[in-house]
Design goal:
mainly beta; Immunoglobulin-like; rod-shaped; five-stranded mixed beta sheet; about 400 residues
Length: about 400
């Protein structure tokens, strides 16, 4: 494929009117034809035609002989055959094709030598008017993914590219054949298994990071990948991969969110709302205080769903964020009948009857404590009371 370069020295001519007629009017008369710049009246065919290459007509002539010659083109060039019917000599376009590694110096095609032009294709130089030398034609001719050095003496592959015959860390390649580097992304699981996998990627191409199913960790979700400077979401896509070296990404884990349902296991009254927890977070067991259960007291919570351990009892305030693997679970309240000699004023514990008093199992308050075959008993405050001898069972009500 040829490259066409128009000398910038002559671009100012483009601003002065039309530089070429592209067609002439059909079915024209001599008078209408002659008013069109670049056209002449062809008597033999009675038609309006364009002037030949290297000729021009200012729009006042009526036959081919009146198309004025542009003269001799600059040395080494020829008039551009595609530019016909020009309206003035200053618009006559010259052209010359030079081999790869050459430029037009105003007289001929000359070698660029070591000035930084490494194109592997021939190039066409062109312009208008008198041609002059322009060694700048030899600069900035590096190929794709490469650029000239600051002094214009060489072509370097851009970051992320290398030549076919060099390793990809080499940048001073003096070549236009720059291809994208290949890099390796190493993924580390950051879990108790210490797993790693790798991914081969190409610079400047679209690259998607590994998904959230790449590794597993009990109780956690894989949510991202961490480099030394940034965290990316799993599956993140680089539209144009920009790292210029191998990189390592570590898995970022987030505790699973799960719910805990509280089963009252037959209470008389009261409810506890479902609890939302994060695995390995600060979630603690709720108190059973909202419940009412006549004659019974609470001994702890037992996991009956979603846990591998279904025997351990957990008290209010115990950390429960790791009882399951981050799955929803159910804690069931465990109850004990209030023992003889005690009464259950609340569901959270059982209280002893005063000294010298006792109760039946399942007593619900202090009034259920009583004296049996006793003539005197003392309460916790060392207040002592005498009971008539014929009373075999008197309920204690805080005093006689």
């Amino acid at each position: 494929m040829k490259k066409i370069i128009v000398s910038t020295f002559f671009l100012l001519f483009f601003s002065h009117g039309a530089f070429a007629a592209t067609s002439c009017p059909t079915n024209a008369t001599i008078s209408t034809c002659s008013t069109n710049a670049g056209c002449y009246w062809q008597n033999s065919t009675a038609s309006c035609s364009l002037c030949l290459s290297g000729h021009y007509n200012d729009g006042t002539k009526e036959n081919l002989t009146n198309c004025t010659s542009c003269g001799t083109s600059p040395k080494g060039t020829s008039w551009d055959a595609t530019q016909t019917g020009l309206e003035s000599a200053s618009k006559c376009k010259w052209t010359i094709t030079c081999d790869a590694g050459q430029y037009y110096n105003g007289t001929e095609c000359a070698s660029c030598h070591g000035t930084g032009r490494y194109s592997t294709e021939s190039e066409t130089f062109s312009g208008y008017g008198t041609a002059s030398s322009s060694t700048s034609q030899c600069s900035q001719k590096c190929g794709a993914n490469s650029s000239t050095t600051s002094n214009g003496q060489a072509c370097n592959c851009n970051n992320g590219y290398h030549t076919q015959d060099q390793n990809q860390t080499h940048v001073n390649n003096n070549s236009t054949d720059c291809i994208a580097n290949q890099y390796t992304i190493t993924y580390k699981s950051n879990n108790d298994k210490d797993e790693t996998i790798t991914q081969q990627v190409t610079f400047a191409t679209q690259v998607s990071l590994k998904p959230n199913t790449t590794f597993t960790k009990q109780g956690y979700n894989l949510t991202g990948w961490k480099s030394t400077t940034q965290i990316y979401t799993t599956g993140y896509t680089f539209e144009s991969y920009s790292f210029t070296n191998d990189i390592t990404l570590e898995a970022v884990w987030s505790g699973k969110t799960f719910s805990i349902t509280y089963d009252d296991n037959g209470v008389t009254d009261g409810t506890i709302s479902t609890q939302t927890c994060t695995y390995n977070g600060t979630c603690k067991a709720e108190s059973a205080a909202p419940y009412t259960y006549s004659g019974k007291y609470f001994t702890g919570w037992k996991c009956i769903y979603g846990c591998s351990d279904t025997t351990t009892l957990y008290k209010a305030g115990d950390t429960i964020s790791t009882l399951s693997d981050g799955n929803d679970m159910t804690l069931q309240a465990q109850w004990q009948t209030c023992s003889a000699g005690y009464y259950c004023s609340t569901v959270t514990n059982q209280n002893p009857c005063p000294i010298g008093a006792t109760s039946d199992a399942g007593a619900t308050d202090i009034k259920k404590c009583y004296i049996n075959n006793q003539t005197q008993f003392c309460d916790d405050n060392d207040n002592c009371y005498t009971i008539p001898g014929n009373n075999t069972k008197i309920y204690y009500q805080g005093g006689i």
